[in-house]
């Protein structure tokens, strides 16, 4: 396992992602590997917010805001909630985790990012969120395991 020097930790902030973060943190400390936390946003999020289905912000429905403003808002929310919770679940690691946000289909973006960033191990939770927050992991973890160029650890 000494050739594991870069761990990719996809997250959606779910309980499954938090368990995966704990395992990734332990591996990072044991192997002295860097960790990148990846959060993938889908254009489906834009649809959910652009049709006024989401809450009102600043006295106007989000659907009346430009798409880039909605994207920025969703990215900011992900950084302040899901990504922050995930980095805390990692525990103390050195170096500090890198943070990446991507837009697209989760499994595709995870495998594409892993290959392009020379990731040597992906640690992913087996079950993610469901309902309006979007099912992220679970079937995504299986797709990643099937498509990834590197080993994948699926954490229950």
Descriptive overview:
The chain has helices at about 15-30, 45-50, 65-90, 105-115, 140-145, and strands at about 5-10, 35-40, 55, 60, 100-105, 120-125, 150-155. It is an alpha/beta fold and about 160 residues long. It has a single domain (about 5-45, about 75-155), classed as Rossmann fold. Strands 5-2-1-6-7 form a five-stranded parallel β-sheet, with helices on both faces. The protein has a two-stranded antiparallel ribbon with strand order 3-4. Strand 3 (about 55) and strand 4 (about 60) form a beta hairpin. Residues about 130-135 have low confidence and may be disordered.
What are the key terms here?
156 residues, 5-stranded parallel β-sheet, Rossmann fold, alpha/beta, 5 helices, 44% helix, 7 strands
Q: Strand order across the biggest sheet?
A: 5-2-1-6-7
What structural class do the secondary elements suggest?
alpha/beta
As for the number of domains, it is: 1
> What proportion strand?
15-25%
Q: CATH superfamily name? A: HUPs
For the residues shown, what is the average pLDDT? 86
End-to-end CA span: 21 Å
Q: How is the main sheet built?
A: 5 strands, parallel
CATH architecture: 3-Layer(aba) Sandwich
CATH class: Alpha Beta
Helix content: 40-55%
CATH fold topology: Rossmann fold
* Coarse shape: globular
Radius of gyration: 16 Å
**SSE order, as H and E?**
EHEHEEHEHEHE
Total of DSSP H or I helical runs spanning 4+ residues: 5
Low-confidence stretches: 131-137
Q: What is the β-strand count?
A: 7
Which helices and strands occur, and which strands form pairs?
Elements: E1 6-11, H1 15-31, E2 34-41, H2 43-50, E3 56-57, E4 60-61, H3 67-90, E5 98-103, H4 106-116, E6 121-125, H5 139-147, E7 152-155
Parallel strand pairs: 1-2, 1-6, 2-5, 6-7
Antiparallel strand pairs: 3-4
Helix pairs in contact: 1-3, 2-3, 4-5
């Amino acid at each position: 396992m000494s050739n594991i020097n870069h761990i990719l930790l996809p997250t959606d902030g779910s309980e499954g992602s938090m368990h995966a973060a704990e395992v990734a943190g332990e591996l990072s400390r044991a192997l002295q590997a860097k960790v990148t936390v990846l959060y993938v946003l889908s254009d489906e999020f834009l649809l959910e917010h652009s049709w006024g289905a989401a809450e009102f912000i600043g006295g106007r429905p989000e659907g009346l805001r430009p798409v880039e403003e909605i994207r920025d808002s969703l990215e900011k929310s992900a950084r302040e909630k899901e990504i922050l919770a995930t980095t805390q679940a990692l525990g103390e690691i050195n170096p500090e985790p890198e943070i990446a946000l991507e837009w697209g289909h989760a499994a595709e973006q995870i495998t594409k990012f892993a290959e392009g960033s020379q990731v040597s191990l992906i640690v992913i939770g087996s079950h993610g969120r469901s309902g309006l927050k979007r099912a992220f992991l679970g079937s995504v973890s299986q797709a990643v395991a099937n498509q990834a160029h590197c080993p994948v650890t699926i954490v229950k």
